[in-house]
Design goal:
This protein is α/β, with parallel strands linked by helices. It contains twelve helices and ten strands. Bound molecules: phosphoenolpyruvate. The site of phosphoenolpyruvate has 13 residues, from strand 9.
Length: 261
């Protein structure tokens, strides 16, 4: 199994390092990972998302690489009295390509609402940063039969006023909250069913020819040994990876197993 690349959607595998790896650990990782790139499948977009302070080091070291760089968050504001924030323009200035928005940790711990996430997504597109837009239900919501309602609300809220063209430059990451950092993975069928539903909501918003081109990553305890089965599902177009992306060798193995060429 594994993701067999189609013309329609190029798979995308992103490493979310969360609050790990300052500039020197980032440099160590990138040097080791770059040595493994030649052995990795070519038809896959690979993205690293270090913490803010490590972004300049990452973009400098990867300036001539196929590996792209993502921030893990950003402000929807351009400048002003917003202590501790980082703007989209600042990320562009240091050559960042993507930005993770709406991660469940930002929603749950920092109280980010669909409205805030929507404002950030619109701002990211304004400066041509590609959002990796995270959605996903809690265990309670799934057990209460609210999976589809939750996903629909998050998608329509997050993508409000996002144009068709911008939607095509948005990566959606379906991450069931109960599978993030827990070692529990959604079964390939649970993940595929949710992805199919996400795509159907995207079809309602943008029509089938657009929704078929939007990449939907799965996230939640993806590892080298389950990547092939998950990425082999029809509507799963890549992975957003936390824990298993912290070591260059295990992240490289995950990519190798997940994408078949
Ligand atoms: C994540 O935080 O986006 C994630 C998927 O983490 P993990 O792979 O550790 O579950």
């Amino acid at each position: 199994m594994g993701y067999a690349a189609t013309d329609m959607r190029k798979p995308i595998i992103a490493a979310n390092w969360k609050l790990n790896k300052g500039p020197s650990d980032t440099e160590d990782f990138i040097k080791s990972f770059e040595n493994k790139l030649a052995d990795l499948p070519k038809g896959v977009d690979i993205v690293l998302a270090p913490p803010f302070v490590s972004l300049p080091k990452a973009t400098e070291l990867l300036a001539h690489s196929k590996v792209r760089v993502s921030a893990q968050n950003m402000s929807e504001k351009d400048n002003g009295a917003y202590t501790g924030e980082v703007s989209a323009f600042m990320l562009k200035e240091i050559f960042v390509n993507y930005v993770i928005l709406g991660h469940s940790e930002r929603r749950a711990i920092y109280g980010e609402s669909d409205e805030m996430i929507n404002a950030k997504i619109l701002k990211a597109h304004e400066v041509e940063l590609k959002p990796i837009f995270c959605i996903g239900e809690t265990l309670q919501e799934r057990e209460d039969g609210k999976l589809e309602d939750v996903l629909r609300t998050q998608i329509t809220g997050g993508l409000k006023n996002v144009t068709e063209k911008q939607a095509l430059d948005t990566v959606v990451a379906y991450e069931p909250v109960w599978a993030i950092g827990t070692g529990v993975t959604a079964s390939p069928k649970q993940a595929q069913d949710a992805h199919e539903f996400v795509r159907s909501v995207l079809t309602d918003l943008y029509g089938v020819s657009v929704s078929e081109k939007i990449r939907i990553q799965y996230g939640g305890s993806v590892k080298a040994d389950n990547a092939a089965e998950l990425l082999g599902q029809k509507d799963i177009d890549g992975a957003l990876v936390g824990g298993a992306s912290l070591e260059a060798s295990s992240f490289a193995e995950l990519i190798k197993n997940g994408v078949v060429e």
